[in-house]
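worker-3 :: picked LacI family transcriptional regulator
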Amino acid sequence: MPEGTHRPRRGATTIEEVARAAGVSRQTVSNVLNAPHRVRPDTLERVTAAIRELGYQPDQSARSLRSGARRTIGYLAPVDDPFDPNPLMAGFLEALVDAAGAQGQRVLLFRPAPGAADPLAAIDELVAARQVDGLVLADVLRDDPRIGHVVRAGVPFTTFGRTGPGEPQHWVDIANGPAMATVVRHLAERGHRRIAYVGSACVGDSENLPWMADRRAGFLAEAHRLGLTAVTTARPGVEAVRELLAGPDRPTAVATGSDLLALDVYEAVRAEGLTVGRDVAVTGFHDTPLCRHLHPALTSVRLPLRAIAGALVERLLDQVRGEAPRAAGLELPTDLVVRASS
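worker-3 :: tokens ->
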């Protein structure tokens, strides 16, 4: 290298130098950084290689000042017990952070102040501070007040869970009913003709949680279609399951609306002197890590958490960039992971 010249140190490279190295315009480099979906794949690959080779590091603060973008997604975290966290939502959060990072975004967690039940004030505070470009909401209920609130505020958002008719369809969800129908077919194929469903963690849950209602409906509809005898618990808990198992016409299989509910079934089966997987087949829903550690290992419905998170981030960033929103939500399929319990 001639005396008096040197390769720019990492982080000192300019966007113009990247453009020259890749043989493109400065605007094309900017598009690669801010809107890669607008760039042809071969050009994207060439510019990305030049960025990596030259060690170019864009000035994020300057970019934010120019564009008004914070490159940060707000996630309204469900209230949870740190000593007994929801394993499904913990897995979803991991997938969301990874999906955001792949798009050059960060995830900012927030929730109402301790003791405050209304999340709307927490949303207003975050939006007023201009800390995020948009929001991801989960655990969406029927007539969820958060949806109308963020729509009126003009905030880009996506939801893990379906919004109602007349609301923006920025949602991503699984096919809960068809997933439970797959469970019923699995049990029928193994010869079970009398089956039960446990779907409530507490009284009224199936009515209040739309995904639980869909799972129960999917179970009953498919059992009816196949000519199976299907029963459900009138109340939740180990004792309710024991009552189902104590009669002469006890079910030979029990499907549940979550892996945690399957724990009650395991306990009830053993309390009746029966064996899970031999006398009574049991299935769960969510395929959380505990499934592999139960004895016997629990058959469960696996959610595509990475695909869900990726779609949520992609649909949110479409809105942030001012692109036309998708006309309909996205329903993703699930997988049934068969283990020894069934």
